Queue: 3 jobs
Job 1
Amino acid sequence: MLTFNKKLSIIIISIITTIIVIVGIILGITLSSSNTNEDTPKEGSIDDNNLHSDNKDDISYFNYKYPTQSHVGMASEYLGTTPRNLPKAMSNGGLERYPKYGKQPDFSDLNSDQIKDIKTSIIKENNALVSTGTSNLNGSYDNYDHMDENGIFYKNNEVLKDSNGNPIKLYKHTASEGMYNGDISPEEPAIIKKIKINPRGYGNHITGLYAPPGEIIKVEISELDLSQIGSTSIFIGQVLSSGKANNIWLEREFVRMPTIANKFPLDRKTIYIGYHLGGPIYIGTPENKKSFSVTISGAVPYPHFIQGYTTEEEWEFNLNSTAPYFDLEIWDDSIRFSGSRKAAGEWTYDELYDCAVLWDKITRISNSIPQYGNVNTGIVMLYEPFVAAGAAVAFQGGNTVNAPESWMKEVLDVQNFILNGSWGNIHELNHHYQRYGLPNGTEVTNNAVSLISYSLFTLISSSRTIKNDYTINNWNRFTDPLYVLKRLLSNVDNEYSGIYSLAAYATILHSFGQKKYIETANACNGNTGIEIYYQALTNSIHYDFTYYFEKILGLSISSDIKISMTSNNYPIFIPVSSVFQVGRNYFYDGEEIFIRTVQPFEISFDSPYTFNVLSDETFSYPSGFTVSIKAITSPINGKLESNDNNNNEYTYIPDKNKEKSGEFKVTLKIVKDDDSSIKINDITLLLEFKAKRKTMPKRTTYYYHDTQKIYKHVSDAIELKYTGYTSVIDYELSTPALWYDGEGIELNCVTEYNAKFFVTTTNTYRLALRGKQSNLSISRNGGQQFESIITIGDSFINHYPESIEKKYYYDINLKKGEVVYLKVVLLSADTTHCFFEIGCSIQKDDNTYEIPTIITNTFQLYSPDYEKPIYNPDYFISREYTGSEIVSPLNQKLISGENIESWDDTLKIDNLFDDKSSTYFHSKKNNYVSESNPFTITVDLGEIYTINSVILKGRPANVNQSPKFFKFYGGVDLENLVLIYSTDDKGSSLTNGVDIEFSFNTTQIHYYKLSITGSYNQYVALNGIYPSITGNEHSPDSLTYIGNWTVHSTFSPYGHVYTSTDSNSMIQFTFKGSYIMIYTIAGESQSFSISIDNENYEEVSISSTFEGYSYKSKLLNNDEHEIIIKINTRCTVASIITL
């Protein structure tokens, strides 16, 4: 077995979205009370008073670096290595040319008919390589459905043979060279990996394994698991979530082989898989959504990151693989980024964790909007050379995006996203979440969803400035409320199809905030339409949007709808916006609510800043109204002074010791010019300033008024440290390009330019210099020491080919994460050809270089003082999970019943209590259930349980015979059962067509009685009755840990657990509710003590085989409670349930 350290054998497992533990079948738990109210704590224990100490240094808190909110639904265990089945040679079907991954064949010597013929032949040959059902292309051909351990293909259990009668076998195709932009080393070891999957409802599951081209891979599954899951498929290569291949058809460029995916049915205990082109291996979703395990032998690992369970050790282990693929996934209903390792780029574990957290936040927003397709499954972003339509395409309903490889690195770059976004990626993602709003807006409503995430999770809006650029279409500018409203009120959008509507949506976002925007989208109920959106806005926000729709958007509302909406007498919505605003107020049924959608407006804090609140350049509102300032407050930091000559003008005096002014408010009065009687609420805008970051490279110029002291050679100026200058001035460049032409040439000067860049990809780079009398130096130690690498004297080097020819270049190996400082010194004793420019090129795979181009094409240059901004906002929408403990039917015993006679012996009443999904009870023929003839059973649970819900599992059949009207009684005394739940006049609600789940106040029962007085079709048919306790599940990351703890990946709700064996360690947790349960996994025996609200500690001891809720409290007052857990020998926490 492969292990990564003494503490960790990579075992990564999970459970389904709702934790369900069936009680009564796992033993090994002991509870006992102990009085710890002693005057002196026991030796080795912690005094509880330390938890409340004012001196936090008294407490040693344990903080895990990589907390998550998401469940994980898979597990893996590395079992060792195995020899690979290396192909002896490559082969093909004999065609004269084939595509390579990312490059179509050279067809320059062929006419159109010849090109069509050879492409048709490639398709035909490719079709013969894949198994039955893989390709979507037309054509009739005999394909295989299985393969044996020797790589021989079978169809319907018969060997497939070629025209010579020889068995057709798997081989390595020549087109597999460079597949996914790389090749696997023949020395790369194959591994044996066991994978456990608790399947999603749709799509496929990462294995982290890659099938080398032409090599035979073994897949094993137990007979029990195979019988339970029904059927599923194993895929090799990139596939859509639907399981289909993303095929290239005849009319498109063949930038790879037409079909690069293959699949095999997992229908036997042992199968063998492989593909001529190779690729990553995925496991499909089985017919029956049951947990199962497979063991795969002969494949190689590839770098993949699954949030919540991939450890840093496993990441580093897989990173050593030569397999050319990469996956990053947030497992539960979120997103996967999938593509070649080269396209993904180079990332550290911490960077991938940050990326996963960011996109988990983003997809929580997207998932809050009505979705196309499978609503409980995330979106797979596939990056590859072929794009089926446009620049990228979203397969709505198929939970997949097909995007170009060039987009992949950008989507993983958190720093870039925070500052610049990634519009193409998020636009295609949100094509799956756009079922709301105005009609004909499918390219717009998704953009509005993207703006929600931009407003919450980026700093893009902080780059807005005062300029009338609203006529320029720029997606990022929609984060600026002023740009949005000016665009909306102008006619500019008549030139851009669909953009007009985005301004309409963005105005709502900036006026009422993200929460109300999402609420309105859901109020459309998955539909679009003018009046649908009009009513959704009115009903959700409680404003009158008639003026907005009719006068601003130019849309008509029917009189009936208008009357019904305006009769509420809600305040009229009149949009206003300021370039300085970070948010604003609105009123909801009289309550004032403030929202924020924008970052602070950046200004220089070096001097006072004068601004006009209501100028045409800084403020916008519809014509026909008068707006005036009613009041303005002082900022939290700095001072605000009014201008006596202009009531709308103010001067902000910054506090240079603070980064921000803090919020201040300006309240505006709005009056309609032609009817002042119309009531319009005052609007209060939140304003805030922030010190502008200096990002551009610096220029320092030394002036020599005495021309006799100016240097003749740049090297002399550097050696003598510019001695003799008359004056010196510091400048900030207007652009990041390090070249003097754009900044102006000054005579008799020495100018020093300073910049730095961040290395994002490990490689060898060629730095070149062109110009005259210039010197380039670099520093790799934070700017402490510089090394001179290139100097140009009086020779004028005008072009980079000349720079290379005359050796004015320097090759340097740089590693990802390095920060390189640049210093260029330019001597301008005269201005003839006096300039410099730095060029850069990257070493190619064949160790050659392209001719350099300006360095800003390779690196973004910054001020030497620039530091990357840290911006990690909280989740706007947090994940919410529930956990349940269900009373197993095996623990239930029938005491008595009425009308419990069955249809026949196969459908008897005992089937309700066998806990088998395939057996059912069905009431006797012609014995129709009714109020006068009820079906009634009384059941003993064997002990007292705390419950708050019951599931009645029905019988899937052509005729639904689930209970519609019933009463449920319960209690601890058989003779005094009380009514707990009763259906109303409408009857029960079906959760999935046949099952019924109902909830009630938490109570304790030992016995229950179910009386059914009506069904959906005369009879009663049930699979089982499942009383349960269900509450809110909390990640183990949400608890407070004190002392020594370790975190490791294992079979648990969130993919990892916290463990301590230190008796000085503790857990603290506060919750509001009336009940708590602690979920524990099997592995080691445990003993710990728990106290609620400082009461006596209760000791919990569980065996190494126990898995489930190790602790269940008594019913508590519905109030805030503090939990303290002390370690006796060991404690492992997987999650906590409260209600």
Note: Confidence is low (pLDDT under 50) at residues 1-19, 23-27, 34-56.
Job 2
Amino acid sequence: MRRRSSADPSSEHHDADDSTADHSPTTPAEHDEKLASRTEGLQVTAEAWVESKRWKSAIPPHTRPPPHMAHEKADVPMAALGKDMISHTAVPGHSSKWRQRLRSPWTCSPCTLVTTLAAFLAMFLMAQSFLTRQQDVKGVPVLFIPGNAGSYKQVRSLAAEAAYHYHNNVQHEVDSGKRPLDFFSVDFNEDITAFHGQTLLDQAEYLNDAITYILSLYHTPGKFLRDSTLPDPTSVIIVGHSMGGVVARTMLTMPNYQANSINTIITLAAPHARPPVSFDGDIVRTYKRVNDYWRHAYSQKWAIDNPLWHVTLISIAGGSLDTMISSDYTSIQSLVPETHGFTVFSTSMPNVWTGIDHLAITWCDQHRKAVVRALYDVIDVARATQTVPRAERMRGFKKWFLTGLEDIAEKSLPQKEAKTLLTLEENSAIISEGERLVLRSLGKSKQRPNAHLIPVPPQAQGKRFTLLTNEQLDPPGSHGMLEVLFCTVFPSQPGQSTTLFSMNMDLSGDSSGATRLACKNAASDVIALPASTRRSTHPFQTNERPFSYLQYEMDHLAEHQFVAVVDKAGERSTGWVVAEFSSASDSQIQVDMGLQRLLTTGLSLRLPSHRPLMTDIKVPALHSALLAYNIHIGKQSCDTGELFAPLLRQYVTDIHESRFSVNVRDAGISLHGVAPYMPPALHQKQPQNGLSLQIWSDPTCDSSVEINLSVDVLGSLGKLWMRYRIIFSAFPILVVALVLRQQFKTYDKTGVFMSFTQGLNECLRSSLPLALSALAFLSVALATAQHQSKKWSIGGKPANMTLFHDTNNELLLGSDDTFFWFLVPLFGLMVIGVCVVINYVALLLELLFASLYSVVRSARLRKDEGKRSPSAFAVTSNRQRVVTTCILLSLVSTVIPYHFAYVVLCLVQLATSVRAFRLAKESGIDSNYNFYNYAHSIFILMLWILPINLPVLVVWIRNLAVHWLTPFSSHHNILSIMPFILLVETLSTGRMVPRADFRVSILTNILLFSIGAYAAVYGVTYAYVLHHLANILCAWLVAIHFDPSTWSARRASCNCSGGSKSSKSGILENNSPDSKTKKRP
């Protein structure tokens, strides 16, 4: 049973909160403090430009309580922007704020700052809605979730536009069922969620409690201004930016999710398909769990078994301008069927028509307008869910977010009733069947208005009606220049015209005989295309009125007999119209060429002089998102005068991405089609059309049009970098592992531990070419198996017939196209070059620090007269090292993540390499060179593992900067760092790894080979595992160091050194003049 509260910001005593019925047990006093803090931290943002400044939390949101404590953690934290007010009163009860902040990491107190514009507008709004208290809510709740390192202030753009639109438009609509949008936002102290899975889970759990509290405001006396006849809201609309969209989907999988409290989610540039980086195991596992939950839910046969049946998910991508994350990852094709959501690119959205970068997608003016209007279109306060049913929601989102040219776009004409009665002369001219209607100038006819009738072909399958004009199409009752009607013959029955039709258009004049047609207006199905003239430079320029385009399949026109194009221009104008029925065989061109031939020779087409108004060119082979193209369209000659310049639309059917090019001669083509590492679609389509090019060209010009398509090499390289950036953190581990394998193999045989450079040269002549060749063949096999798996899934064959699992997309290149096998050796060569550069940079650092170290320690070296004792190498004693190691492990297990310890170990290993380099350089003894090469190679390995550990470390450091008392609740496993610590500490004493026997050497080679193979095959998808594999290698090396069976071999090796004395470290030689140890030249 819910409990209501009369929360009053001016009171210190509150009744029980009604956030949920199953709260954890809480004492009354503590519960009152929680409710008070919630009241302090919440402001409703619906119709104002008031910038809310909140005092930052004393403890940032990183440590969450166990599940049974989830409700206690949800003490406060709604951020806000204020509503319908220009002032803010102080909140009593400040004495308990410190305790509240300690309990809730997002607790805050409001401090409102009002700008001049905000004050002016707020006064105007108060005049409209009278004076309301700041805590009052009266509209539809919308929760904005910021993304990775995002701010709650990003909601201001959407909230401001929502207020503008409501007060200027929506509130004047009669019986519309609309109310203002109450925007809420949460201040997470700009948490970094992309790198840390636990932070993502913490936010999702907390937001579920926040939604419970938001909904409680709408039925708490004194907190709302809503019509008492309206139902209390039971759900909240979610708008999530970047990782906030992933958090939104995660909320529905959490234990504390309140059923049906979320039914509409709009995400902006959110990477749904896979994590942006795979350096944290928690984020990878969270993605897998959440995505599996959504796939399983929508794979249910019956709606009653699907907990997400009521949810609609819209994913909006910024396209190529988003260089922070690849827009391929925004696809929800693998998660949600088309009945419940879709992915759309901003270049396809009407009135947006442009790419948007990752941050600007929250405040881009034309984009926020489209989002706000779509939200107002799907809300309905007469329902408890606050939105229209799912099917109507999807219809509204398609209307505002799609061009209307997509296959799933719905036409309103078949659902309409005939409301216009068109009366024509009995002998009115009708365009001959198969002819094209061309009006070069509206208003040219003497009869005004003048109707041109185009007969609908009877039972003409495969035909399509298209109409293009530079004028706007008039809706019913408008007095514009052009109206398009779809009509059927209406039998003459007296009295019916006034009772059945709202519009009567009589063009019969004084004619005694007349033809009456019952017509439907087509203005609601008009598609806006960018104006394309010889003066056009960019699509949808503000100084050019867009073209109006109609397109209907014959199924939509089955009940109609005529298309009436009514010229209503009062005088001659520059308006023109082209309308026709064309066959699919003439208007669609299928290019059956392989990708290899297209890339080598290009594509050349010639559109004939007698062609349809629109030509659709489909190139199924061009489906990869890894390539960019250039297109050239030749100029056509037109003796009668060109109506419009060629207009190009490039689009992909699998995801809704369209881009327009006007007055096109040369244009670049970039698409987000089949991208690497993307999971398979929830429901495979057949066939996959790949890239499609829709070209509108003037059909009245009696000339052909040349089209040439070629590869854009530089653009393709940029796309390869965007899709395969992570590969440069995984493939180097393959190279380093093979080099170490070569070094240990040679050392166990000859006793010489070659340098990293020598080992790399040996690998270039042996193992690396073989490894890259094997990986190239493996990429072909995986791509073939994945492609065959898709074909079988489309054919309906059972999943157990596939050669591999669907996780093939996670392996190696992650592509199902065998053409891209060459990327394996290409990336291999690039990575080898990077490894060479990093190796020489490390050598340069060691040389520099060794020179500085020699200057500092030069006096001691002269005193020792060149002796190399253990005390001269080891910096601390054994006892100090043991104590330091124990302290570090205790800190890792309680306070710091093991990634911090790893960075410290990298610095210690660098110092060890520097001292080893100085020792080897000054002594010239082979054993010292062996140790230096060994220490240097381990440092190179640790250096390549370092980027995998840095993101989580950045999260911890940022949390520490916000408040140093905040505990870090993940990555405290000491086993993940202990082998590194033991190995680095061992090397810091100057102990050289002993030579191993045949069996141990074989196991070492197998281990290093396995690490390299895993890095190449799984490293991109599971990069965090590489740290643990290197950790296992360190444990193995430590075991070799301290294996008693190697001591006898070590003593024997030392006895064979020509009589030289071996130190306790096993490598430090006495450099006396009597020594017979061989030195390097």
Note: Residues 823-864 form the longest helix (42 residues).
Job 3
Amino acid sequence: MRIQRRFTERGQSPYTGIEFRESASEIKNPDGSVVFALEKFSVPAQWSQVAADILAQKYFRKAGVAAKLKRVEENSVPSWLWRSVPDEDAMAALPEAERFGSETDARQVFDRLAGTWTYWGWKGDYFSSEDDAQAFFDEMRFMLAKQMGAPNSPQWFNTGLHWAYGIDGPSQGHFYVDFETGQLKASESAYEHPQPHACFIQSIADDLVNENGIMDLWVREARLFKYGSGTGTNFSSLRGENEPLSGGGKSSGLMSFLKIGDRAAGAIKSGGTTRRAAKMVVVDMDHPDIESYINWKVLEEQKVAALVTGSMVLSERLNAVLRACVNCDSDNDGCFDPKQNPALKREVKAARKAKVPDNMIQRIIQFARQGYTSIEIPIYDTDWDSEAYRTVAGQNSNNSVRVTDEFLTAVEEDGDWDLILRKTGGVAKTLKARDLWDKVGYAAWSCADPGIQFHTTINDWHTCPSAGQINASNPCSEYMFLDDTACNLASLNLMAFRAKDGSFEVESYEHAVRLWTVVLEIAVTMAQFPSRQIARLSYEYRTLGLGYANIGGLLMASGIPYDSDEGRALGGALTAILTGVSYATSAEMARELGAFPGYEANREHMLRVIRNHARASRGEQHGYEDLSMPPVPLDHASCPDPRLLAHAMRAWDQALELGRQYGYRNAQASVIAPTGTIGLVMDCDTTGIEPDFALVKFKKLAGGGYFKIINRMVPQALEALGYDEAEVQQIIDYAVGHGSLPGAPGVNLESLADKGFAPEKLDAVEKAVSSAFDIKFVFNKWTLGEDFCTQTLGLAAEQLDAPDFDLLAEIGFSKADVEAANEYACGAMTLEGAPGLDPAHLPVFDCASPCGRKGTRFLSVESHIRMMAAAQPFISGAISKTINMPNEASVEDCKAAYLLSWRLALKANALYRDGSKLSQPLNAQLLAEDEEEQDEVLTAITSDQPAVQRATVVTERVVERVIERVRASAERERLPDRRKGYTQKAVVGGHKVYLRTGEYDDGRLGEIFIDMHKEGAAFRSLMNNFAIAVSVGLQYGVPLEEFVDAFTFTRFEPAGPVRGNEAIKNATSILDYLFRELAVSYLGRFELAHVDPNEIGSTTVGSGDTGHGQSVPETLVSPGFTRGRLGERSSPVAGDAQSATAQVRAISSEVDEESLPETTGRATASLEATPSDAAEHVALAAEALTQRGASALVAEARVKGYEGEACGECGNFTLVRNGTCLKCDTCGSTSGCS
């Protein structure tokens, strides 16, 4: 082949004109521990620090690179292409530690890759002359250095280690086909033939232990996972549960083996890192076990919810039981008897109410009786890499179902659908197609699996149907071809072809497509494969996976909305050019080297597919050959660049004409892959065909740390839309913020100085604000110093350690002050509301999810699907993309998205509803203030401290709660001048106590008076002031429930028997008595009474008072005096803390709660949860778990536009959706296979 130069000059280094810089790389965990560090290496100057980090951490060869190399002469190869080996003689003069090391220059990697491709290309006769080979070598090195294109990760890992450095090792069980003889051979070394392929599809036979059987597949998968590749398999050939076996007996079914394979995959970390295996499981819709398969992950997610909830409940309740036993002063084992220990009785009741098994409660009491004072019960969390998720099945693969047009037609017509036995072909079960479809929709809504693969459409575009059907895909769903084949990927960075004037350099783009097609074809020639069958079929069909990245960035930079006819037309035209030129190049190579071996048997089929591609490029609506579902043709009327239309049509005309004459070298040419890690290496703002995920991003600095920048496409977009430089800067300042507090409204240097901030503290704050995404995260003990916070600001150390502590609010700044200052200093992180921005231009800046806290706009589900539909007619394989759905999307929305994808002729679709995984916090949660109180904090604080200290801490906790509620409401509800109430006289431990209450007109408690001892006594004064504090709290909206929970069971003198109160007979302190009385009288908390209310009389039975702030009839009798039993009172109003709690707690069990079974075998039937109760409990837990566990790191990640999950490799919360996978913006690891 003839290779033209477009980017380089003959006789000149391809690096001429490219500036390189010295860099260092350090990737840290969130806790500061170093994941990877390299002190000095060279990269092109225009590369970002993230791109440099990825190259250094992932793609540099870390060992075995000789300090001195020598060439190995080969007569048939030009001398500049001779491979290298270590020069042992030259290295003998070096210290042993310096003889071998790591790659330390990006040029070493570029030379290694391009040199190996050129070497094998020369040996395979791909070049017409040595000049063509040299041009190819130079052009590829230039494109790598300028981030114009990149191959998939296995190429970076493996290609060229033998050619460039002589690195080798024993064979790992691979095979290759000798390109000169066509003979299949076993590899004799590990690296002479590299493994450059990322995507594999493997078959499985319904056989347990023989070759190609079930257990053999786990071994073949392991070989791929070890080298960082991904694989997919259609498991529909396996028998369903209870189908007969040949030797007698019945099959254990598909699901049992899927669970084994899932465990095996989970045990293997790709590439020896902590990245999970990349695996796709596909099952046909007519498999007998399809219902169990569809619901598999739904049930596993419920198990995770149950594990997490159960572990929290067990830890809380059983530790409370243990504390009740330990913090007791009774003799003769009375501490371990609920009848004698009121605290233990209360905790046993609470544990039973939480459905803790009696034998567990009894076990803890026995544990305490033996002298133990603490017990550790592990608490699981919903992190995707946590023990809870590792415990359940189905977490190591993407799941998809294969649906045919026949099935979808049955869904539309409400027809029947047969599930077919695998061996006999008989009908295992008949059910309504819609019922099965409903299960698919619910599962996708509930847990984001299974995805859909449209079997009929996939095979309508199949270029080689004579070789068999396409049954499966790789893990990311973009590679779809025959079983036991492989595909190596590469992607072009579309933004690299955008000229300074905003035009698209289409000729350079076509040139790059041509060269990268040659690269991928050479990779097939040089490659080794993990099995004989894959080596043979990959050689015979030679599938390629060329694609692109950064379409979202290109559209935004051009001022074109992603969700627009123009955007879709531009995307379709660029895709058409890509695949058309690639097929034309494939036909050129076929002219020189011959068509792929399987071409002749499939010639007419392949030409039919090419003709359909060409029709779509011409924008034709009709005339397609043998397609069940017509594609979405190229929209000529909407394309903003007519040049692209001409190039697209010419490319397909050329591809068809050359193919008719010479055939094609490759059965497939293109896919659109996630481009996760390689997208970062190319500094792409967006991956694959995805839109952007955020408008404000955090750019990494070479010396560590980050600074906040606007998405670099935004200024270009604003310029393209006609804004001048001053307007652009004003809009950017709004989004990014000024990075400084001087001049900020509300919170600024002057107001902080008034609060006691010294100049050095103001400097520290100012420095931190420049890179912060929220000023609240600047004001903490790490920025300011703990001594300053506690001594100068007067804050408690416990407050500083609380995860939800807000220092600015604590020192007196209002929420409005903080929000105004935050927007000024840190920016809105969205363009919504930006000064001077025309609202009509907002669609240009729409992202996959709302941006920042204020953002409300995001791309619709349909916009994702229609962009895919615009590109799919021009792709050989498929498109890896996740369809983002908001949390409020319904099951019907999921089913509608799938049906729309089918009607628009997509090949596959994966939905992701926000929050459908327990491991991901909801977007919506983090956009609002979290006002939930966490009662478990109180328990943890007070658990192991003496009585006096416990009382002190409890008081501080209540005061803290009062302050928080005052901030929320900021209004005091005063009592009427003439009010009701009651007076209760009692004697506690020999001391008279008078409790007087004051009530609102609707019966709610509003004040208390406590009178005891003689006038002037210190204790009496303390009680008076305490009563005033409680009264003020009640009038500011603090629920009585909070006081009751805080002060009951406090222990100090006077204490002892209680006389004069018919419900309460003993108290551990005055406060314990007072708040028991109030709880019984106003809240219906009869479990705090010692006498059953039914034994006292009707005045003790009933619920609490009515809703606060609602229109209710005035009660003429004190509800406290009657203990809640008022006939004329209205029903409780939801939202009032007193009445709602009372209503719930009035429902009491008739079971004797005082004794426990003496043996663990006895059960209390009346305490067993009904199935509906259990289901509701798990459902509520699944909904609330992420709220309770969302940390500041997760919150920060979600506001920045990340997923809110931790990277499994580096631990940073910088994962973003990337096709159907996830990628880490910090270390570049992906959950996919590219």
Note: The radius of gyration is 35 Å.
